[in-house]
Amino acid sequence: MTATRLPTLALLALAASAASASTTSRSGAGAPRASLPIGVLDRVFASGSDTIRGGSPVTVYTDRAAFLTALAPGYAEHDFSEIAPGTAQPIQYTDGSDSWHYVIFTGVFATHPLYNGPGYISTDRVDDPISVATSIFDPPFTAIGANVWPSDFSLQPTSGQVVLTVLMQDGTIGATETVDTAGPNDFRGFTATAPIAGVFVDAPEIDPPVPGESQDRWATLDNLVIGSAAP
């Protein structure tokens, strides 16, 4: 799969617009804007506002075992068992053989908080995507994968789709993958031949609506893997 040449700022503007239009909140309160660590998303902007310099082939995996086989030793895994349910600010990790540093937050600029279940990640506002991003100051990774699914207002798995967008450090979109999910066991992994800046995980509302069922869907993520693609 080859990279889609779409200006990075256009993607960020779309995601920011979706976040600002968000109306349904699990916490029921206007939580204060979260703060991202310095440098997060700088890799995305480093090539210039709308400068496109090509892209890198990205391989998509639907099977977790096959994805792990395609990684070099020393990758990092998180089952989020330490995460308390409810509202949370951006979550930072530094681990793996290359001491990858990455942040999990909502939207593009952490406009709203996360809202997590017991041992998995989700969002407070219904229109916010989950974002996983590295910093310009940290070692780059070339592989990322996770279990993804849509959840309802009560954090229960539900029907619908999840859309994953992989951003490359050169300012391109490396892959966009739509998953018709059956629940928390659905997996998507990505390996690339060039550094990955991060990934957006979004859960669009169901369309057409189902009578008696809410259209709202929240992006949900678990069992995150960060690493390097095997040579």
Give a description of the structure:
Helices cover 10% and strands 37% of the residues. It is built from three helices and 13 strands, in the order H-H-E-H-E-E-E-E-E-E-E-E-E-E-E-E. Strands 1, 2, 4, 5, 7, 8, 9, 10, 11, 12 and 13 form an eleven-stranded antiparallel β-sheet that branches. The chain is mostly beta strands and 231 residues long. It is globular, with a radius of gyration of 16 Å.
Q: Helicity, in percent?
A: under 10%
Report the order of strands and helices. HHEHEEEEEEEEEEEE
Instruction: Work out the number of β strands.
Output: 13
- The chain-level mean pLDDT equals 81
Overall form: globular
Low-confidence stretches: 1-22, 43-55
Structural class: mainly beta
Estimated share of beta-strand residues:
35-45%
Q: What is the helix tally?
A: 3
Reconstruct the topology from this structure.
Blueprint: H1 8-20, H2 42-45, E1 58-61, H3 64-69, E2 76-78, E3 86-88, E4 91-95, E5 100-106, E6 114-116, E7 121-122, E8 130-134, E9 141-151, E10 161-168, E11 173-180, E12 187-202, E13 218-227
Antiparallel strand pairs: 1-12, 2-13, 3-6, 4-5, 5-8, 7-13, 8-12, 9-12, 9-13, 10-11, 10-12
